[in-house]
Amino acid sequence: MSWCAVKDCNSGRKHRANLYGNEGSDVRFFRFPKTSYYCDKWIDSCGKNRNGINTNNARICSLHFDENAYIPKPLVETMLGISPRHKRKLKFDALPTLKVWNTSSCIDYVEKNTTETETTNLVDAGLEQIHQEPLNNELVNLEESGVDLFNMSFQNDHYCTTINGSNISTSSKSTIDAQHPSIEDSWNLKKNKDDAQEISRLQNLLNDKMVENKSLKEEITRLKNIIAIQEGKLLTANDQKRQEHLFEIHFREKLSEMFSPTQIDLILNPKEKVFRWSNEDIAAAISLRSVSSKAYFYLREKKIIPCQVSLSTLRKWAATFSVEKGMLTDVLALMKEKGKSMSRNDKITVLSFDETYISHKISYDKKNEQILGPYKCVQTVMARGLTCSWKQPVFYDFQCPMTKDLLYNIISEIHNSGFEVVALVSDMGPTNIGLWKNLDITPSSSWFINPVSRKRVHVFADVPHLLKLARNHFIDKGFDFPENVYVGKNVLEEYLKISKKSEFELAYRFSEKHINVTGTLRQNVKLATQVFSNRLAEALKYCGKKNMLTMYNWKEASELIKLFNDWFDLLNTQLPIDKFTKSYGMDEDSQNELLKKMDSTIENMKVHGRILVTNASLRNLLIDIKNNYNDIYYIMTRRVNSDVLENLYSYLKGMVGSNTHMTPIEFKYCLRWYLLGKHSNMVFTNNHNTQDTDESCLVNCLSGIIFNDAEVIECFPTDVQADITDDALTSVMSDLGGNTEDTEESNSELLDNYDIHSLMEVHEMSEIEKECIEYIIGSVVKKFISKYPYLGEKVYHCNENNSSWTEQMTKVNLIRPSSDVTYVANVIETIFNIFHGNNGLNKSPGIIKKVTDLVLKEINNEIPVEVINCLVRTRTFIRLNNLNKAIANKIFDVKRTNVKKFIC
């Protein structure tokens, strides 16, 4: 950085701003002149030793020069008001006069050596020097130096006036004017001429600038208009974009329940390619393929739904998921991640474990190059939520009975994943009974300590399994009550003899196969629940009060069946209120009374120990849940049974398309698809695909979902089931009799040979038939009672001896039909038997409409046609169900006969 050579001048130094204020920002530095004369003057002005100044590098700042030391601004800059301070130059003879040390030497030197003659000669010669001594050595050509002579000599008298403020310049000027008057005039003429030319040039320039300015203003106006148009388009585009964004948000919101975000993106942008499918999309695709590979490929090929995940992608994703026997570590890792978004109550866990038989065949695992088998069975452990609907297999192993150490290890692994086990469920297999003994499980101590949390884990026996054991005991041996009261299957056989007399039955689901149950049918829970059902208990009670049953302790049998039915309903709830049964804890006092009654009733039965343990565990579990968790005051008891494992085994067998035992390799890789397809969706989203039910109900549920989503349910007529045909129906009707030939006879001609009213009087119904018909008619009328209130009236529960079947069975709102509807039902029954025969069904098309038309011709009351049509359809299905039941009984009798022949 440059600094000023003048003594005590701080320009160019750091603290110059403090010395000169704002002037420091405008200070310029000038080099010493090359002319020795002026260079010496500049050196004298610095006030320093001459030898201490290097004139090649030294500078003097602009603060030491007055305004007259600078070359005047050109006329153009003066007219335009331009003042480029940093571009101005010093005159060739400028000397520092402000704030310097030795200005007198300059003044003396000028006064001593300057004369009027020298000044006149200087002007005449047009030289830049004003002193004689420099004039002889450094003559400068005015044209070459570019110095304005007029500005230098005549325009201003600033030079000498600035130096000494005396009359030296005035005298010099007057001398010049007296001796050379023509020079001034010539210069004035030249100056005026030049000024006129400059003014003309500037005027032309100004005109050009004005034209250019006008053109620029027009261009600015045009550009402003363009900007306004573009801004309008931009606002329109932004508004359109905002509308599209709002539409996309609304569109995604509407489809979010049916499609994943990636699928919605495909719908919005069908031409774009998906570069990465989400876990949710892959899980959904695997779920679809696990149910039906043909349906998956069909939907992918036809693009009915936006699901285009290739099979190779599914295989790659599935190949990375480990399902080696033992703890399913990948599953536990996923559960741990999922648990981070779940509440503490949602992570309350119930463990279920069970064994199933597998094939004894030896299998080869190609991936691991490993031999599997032969094995007899596979042990599987399932974890499920007590308060939240989730479930997940966490362990499997071949030929591995459950032990105390293994159980503790499984519980510890689940706890490390963030879930807390509070209950344990198993059936009463031999190995499981041994585990109970090792855990010291008794009715008085129905729990063990969690090895990690040190809290109680309550042990439950599988309630459906207990019910099957009770049914087997009831059918095989019967129950002994105090005072030598015996209840066995003989009372059920007596009831079947009564119900066989008519097509109308009080307990229409109960048949001989429920009594003569053998083989694999003993594993069927549905048959056991139909034996211990409320309807059968009420049927026995009704027949006993009407003196149709007079022996075999029908009253005690009815009470026992009723007790088992109520107990099973209480321990099998899957909703807070499930078919009029409240979950345990919502009506705790009455429910504890039921448990207490069950405990006291079966103390002497073989299965009593397991039932007592289960009842005790249920009571204690509710207490612990209320104490340890917030906002839980009831238990949906179906979540403490082993139905989830039964569903798992049924599903895996269905995947290989066989009901026989699976091989070890089939179980392993079907379990992979089960995990990835049915349950991986639970890990990555808040949805799940399984239901706590058996395989047939699973199929019904899936088909129901498909029909509901497609909205085709309402497109079918209400009698769509009439289109169903059964090849076996023809043979059974031939065996049982009835009209099986197609008839072309018109409806009017069919009844010409019959007197309907006479037939109605001749055919007198039994009391059970009348009660059953009233119950059936009431169920039909219930569908239309809000539309046609005159068809019937509500019935309230009555348990007296003279009460009807409808009054005995009603709980809330059963209907007693009016006399007109009952009369129409009797007409329907008579015409139905004429049209179809007593034991068959007419095979001609349109049978519902034909019978309805025949009935309408025979009645005169105002019963709506749709009600009559529904009654005819219901009567047809009753006949159809009875024929199917006859087919099943015939097949059962044939099998039993073959077994007897083989034994003999």
Automatic annotation (TrEMBL):
UniProt KW keywords: Coiled coil, DNA-binding, Metal-binding, Zinc, Zinc-finger
SMART domains the UniProt entry points to: DM3 (SM00692), THAP (SM00980)
Record organism: Macrosiphum euphorbiae
InterPro entries: THAP1/10 (IPR026516), THAP_Znf (IPR006612), THAP_Znf_sf (IPR038441), TNP-like_C (IPR022242), TNP-like_GBD (IPR048366), TNP-like_RNaseH_N (IPR048365)
Protein name from the UniProt record: THAP-type domain-containing protein
PROSITE patterns in alphabetical order: ZF_THAP
GO molecular function, one term: sequence-specific DNA binding
Coiled coil listed as a keyword: yes
Coiled coil: 199-233
THAP-type domain segment(s): 1-99
